[in-house]
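Usage

Read records sequentially. Each one opens with the input sequence:
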Amino acid sequence: MTLVLIMLAAGTMLALGALMGYVLGWANKAFHVVVDPRIEQVNEALPGANCGGCGFVGCGEYAEAVVESDTAVDLCTVGGESCAAALAEILGVTVEQSWPFRPAVHCGATYAERLKRSDYRGEQQCATANIVSGVQGCTYGCLGFGDCDRSCTFDAIHTIDGLATVDYDKCVGCGACSKVCPRNIISMVPFKIEQMVVVACANEDFGKDVKGVCKVGCLGCKACARASDLFTFTDTNIPVIDYDKYDPDQMDEVEVALAKCPMKRLAKVGKPSDKDIEGVAGEDAPGVVQVDFKTTVDDTEWHG
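and closes with the structure output:
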């Protein structure tokens, strides 16, 4: 009797196993999703930084978008041109001319150059300080609490003397600093050459009001616009640069505009060329932003 029960149990288990194997085999065919092999190829060609600079959650999602939709192959800021070329080869498409985007800080005032700055004792973050009135007189300028520093996984931006400063040797253009800035004074600029001209101020007020809160703020005098049509004024008192018109081979008028700016708020950012370095040798050239990371926000003595 015991032997019969054992055989019955064993037979039942074998039958159930065979049935489950059949069900799983059927399900594998019925619900199988065909994955384009190019997705894996694209994913392997990407750097795997998962920084989000392309606008997608990670490299895997970007790889799917590139293969399955019309997403551009040159959105990976970390991989750059070589990565775009590799993706284009995998997909059999051509890469149109594009420019790498790098951050530009639209503020040039250090702590000493900001007026009406209070002894802020709240949480030492830009996002928090931005909702508190009276932290500093200029409501457009860099707050200097280093949110951008902490957002950058490439150690490419540091807060020096209260001012966000980009290390363009390390920057890959992921845009994390631009996204986290609560005052939106960090924008992504197309770098057509290694050193670009940007407006290093964001104060939209009239000159008299700007002088009351900052020693180096743009006065809205429009001298730059008179020198070059690259600079325009819309409904504010701060110039805007039309980067579509930015021609690196025709910069004579722009150089005139830089020289005429009384507050030196038209700044060159990026990697200086040999010609730039030779031209300012032995001189103090405030119009050229030089990076010198001797201190960071961690070295600043905060009170509160």
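Summary fields computed downstream for this record:
- Residues 280-304 have pLDDT under 50 and may be disordered.
- Residues 37-91 form a domain with the 3-methyladenine DNA Glycosylase II; Chain A, domain 3 fold (CATH 1.10.15.40).
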